[in-house]
Amino acid sequence: NERYNARESEPKWQAKWDEAKIFATQNDDPRPKYYVLEMFPYPSGRIHMGHVRNYTMGDVVARTMRARGYNVLHPMGWDAFGLPAENAAIERKVAPKAWTYDNIAAMKKQLQTMGLSLDWAREFATCDPRYYKHQQKMFLDFLKAGLAERETRKLNWDPVDMTVLANEQVIDGRGWRSGAVVELREMNQWVFKITKYSQELLDALGTLDRWPDKVRLMQRNWIGRSEGLLVRFALDPATTPGGETELKIFTTRPDTLFGAKFMAIAGDHPLALAAAAKDPKIAAFVEDCKKRGTAQAEIDTAEKQGIDTGIRAVHPFDPTWSIPVYVANFVLMEYGTGAIFGCPAHDQRDLDFVNKYQLGNTPVVCPEGQDPASFVITDTAYDGEGRMINSRFLDGMTIADAKEEVAKRLETAQLGGAPVGERKVNFRLRDWGISRQRYWGCPIPVIHCEVCGVVPVPDKDLPVTLPEDVSFEKPGNALDHHPTWKHVACPQCGGKAQRETDTMDTFVDSSWYFARFTDPWNETAPTTPDVVNRMLPVDQYIGGVEHAILHLLYSRFFTRAMKATGHVALDEPFKGMFTQGMVVHETYRTADGHFASPAEISITVEGDSRRATLLDGGTPVEIGPIEKMSKSKRNTVDPDEIIGTYGADTARWFMLSDSPPDRDVIWSEEGVKGASRFVQRLWRMVNDAAEIAQAAPASRPDSFGPDALTVRKAAHSALDKVLNGIERLAFNVSLAHIREFSNNLGDVLAKSGTPTPDMAWAIREATVILVQLFHPMMPHLAEECWTVLGQPGLVSEAVWPQIERDLLVEDSITLPVQVNGKKRGEVTVPRAATTAEIEAAVLALDAVRQALDGKPVRKVIVVPQRIVNVVG
Ligand code: ANZ
Ligand code: ZN
């Protein structure tokens, strides 16, 4: 037989699937639905190996579930808004829309060569007004429902690019593109009220049992619930700038109150501003605090700094105890009350702070087993468990009891006619700021009127579309610079008004696309209730762990907000979530220190050692560490080239074969070649088997001889194990079982000669099963094999083979054997063996005879199915 030619075969089958429209999903299909979704791509221009891995996994699930009789929904689209399109416009003078759609066309073509079982009829791009029109409608619904609001917020402002930056875009206090020092600016922006759902989003994590634990943990930490106490400290009015009398703080450690050494307030706390107004040194420090991003990582790593305001607070349990109040750069106005008391012995930030300003520390929690007298804190704060010390009435208590005691006492204590303490649950989660001062995004559909204020764009005027005649000459928001677009008449009073020129964060676009896929044809509403509620939730969502927090959390919020506004009837959009690992590759460095790309080098393997040389000239190249594929390290491989050389099936197989799917996979030329050889081997085997299969009886023989039975058992056991692996998304395990089974079958074929009819029948059955098992991973090869085997129709449409459970029962059993209580060996007996037969087999064992060393056997105890004990 000839070699399998992927280059001819793959396009042929893709065209056949297309013609037969076998992956088009009908919403009214009566079978149970199964929704498989991979995170849709940003149209950057080309697909990369990460996409290949992601979509291959999704495709395996989709094809398997389709074969198993589900109405599978497996759509694809484009996350098409975002900054790179504007950058291209600035740098290359191409319109963002043209750039985006060109990229989509190029990437779609690439995806189509992968042989994915996608329903392309549902494809859309989020930059299409037919999509974002509905997003605008939902924005207005959210506005009405109080789920969208305007809020004044401090944001990272890049004065050169004239735009707000996300925290991740501020690097060492500077804008990532412009390099300009970022300012904190108070700005009016639109937020979605995700904090209304803080508790619910947290609680519901408990129901997501098909999500990775680490993703749930990341979400939990991001939501950041903490139980604590609000405490009002009295201030000495003689020391305050405007005669203020109290300072309210939030603490999660009220137990440590007797270890307090200072109070600290945020640079923009009203008290700090009042103090700054009176003292230029404080004013200078407050100014300084503004000159940094809002990113938590930055705050955590920055040196702790502060300035004494001269203000003095009074300890809530001791009127004679005066505590200095500092302005400190590590206290945020946005969290709690923007003020804290500092207990340096038990909080590292506070300890760093007091060590710098020589305020001292007093430990108040002593670890169990430590002598309190010798327990000293110097550079490392103690945040573990223990008993209270140096804390008057709290001494000897556990932390939990001390917290409770302090809470109780402060709840009843009075200050100015109100309780001093109040229990409070705080969340770290902030409302979701969605305003972006950018052109290439979904316009926020409101109009600002001097008379009427914020006026929603009337439904009949939706969508508010982006103008296409924009210029990117000036920095900043091209929408804002447009000569006419924003000038409109107020829909309410008809007076002069202006459109909102902010557009939505692109995370909004990706927060509901999965719902839109269920009925992308609905022109009048974002969703069609009976369809969306039947097709959602997504049963299996697959994507990168980099989206584990924001995208998933926003989608969970958005689904709840859509429920509140009548667009869906469920809370959780993703029933199963899977985060795939990265695709990594060796790096190569030439003698002059440059990176060489895998395409430029050749590898020779000699025994255990591998050498790399430049293809051009043959000079040796150093093989460097394995790293995430990236342009800068030049260690990327191009899916197009791989598919062109080896075929999509080989690429898909190798992608799944080597590593557990949640781990990184090392892409290597040798690995791909191995996969390619396996493809040829399967092809030869199936052709060999096909000759035997032709001679097999059409109907199932009444009985099978032992050899035929062995073949059948191997096939059904593979069926069981491969499916089990796919169901657990342990694709590498499934692939290993397919390999093992094919090796097995290969041996049988090599030895079969002219098989008996029952054997021929068993071989045909096994080969058909084999092809069906590898079809989800290598669909083109499988179709070709299916034809060779003379099977009707397409394997992509074939029903998953039925497992015959009775073939799975192991017919022998292995029992451990002990002699006088010590394990000496094992015995393998037929499952149906009697006690007498087992005894005989055990006593015949060499190991048992040796252990007995000539002594007579006093007793043999057989614990059925478990163990055999020989007493000598
Ligand atoms: C005293 C104390 C003693 C604290 C101690 C901790 C340890 P979580 O768990 O994240 O909620 N804090 C409160 N508001 C803050 C703000 N706006 N900026 C910076 N820090 C703030 O953290 C709560 C703890 O973080 C609070 O408990 C407070 O310090 C600090 F041994 O109060 B603690
Ligand atoms: Zn008006």
UniProtKB/TrEMBL annotation:
Matches recorded under Pfam families: Anticodon_1, tRNA-synt_1, tRNA-synt_1_2, tRNA-synt_1g
InterPro entries this protein is in? aa-tRNA-synth_I_CS (IPR001412), aa-tRNA-synth_Ia (IPR002300), Leu-tRNA-ligase (IPR002302), Leu_tRNA-synth_edit (IPR025709), M/V/L/I-tRNA-synth_anticd-bd (IPR013155), Methionyl/Leucyl_tRNA_Synth (IPR015413), Rossmann-like_a/b/a_fold (IPR014729), tRNAsynth_Ia_anticodon-bd (IPR009080)
Outline the extent of the Leucyl-tRNA synthetase editing domain.
220-411
Q: Which residues form the Methionyl/Leucyl tRNA synthetase domain?
A: 36-170
Under Gene Ontology molecular function, one entry of this record is: leucine-tRNA ligase activity
Q: Where in the cell is it found?
A: Cytoplasm
Q: What is its main location?
A: cytoplasm
Residue intervals of the Methionyl/Valyl/Leucyl/Isoleucyl-tRNA synthetase anticodon-binding domain = 714-834
Supply the EC number(s): 6.1.1.4
**Gene name of the record:** leuS
Q: Which UniProt keywords apply?
A: Aminoacyl-tRNA synthetase, ATP-binding, Cytoplasm, Ligase, Nucleotide-binding, Protein biosynthesis
The answer to whether UniProt assigns keyword Nucleotide-binding to this entry is yes
**Residues that span the membrane, as ranges:** none
Q: Which family does it belong to?
A: Belongs to the class-I aminoacyl-tRNA synthetase family.
Which EC class does it fall in? Answer: ligase
The UniProt record lists the Aminoacyl-tRNA synthetase class Ia domain at 430-587, 627-667
- Official protein name in the record: Leucine--tRNA ligase
Positions with a binding annotation for ATP: 631
Q: Where is this motif: 'HIGH' region?
A: 41-51
Q: Which NCBIfam families match?
A: leuS_bact
- HAMAP family registered for this protein in UniProt: Leu_tRNA_synth_B (MF_00049_B)
Positions occupied by motif 'KMSKS' region: 628-632
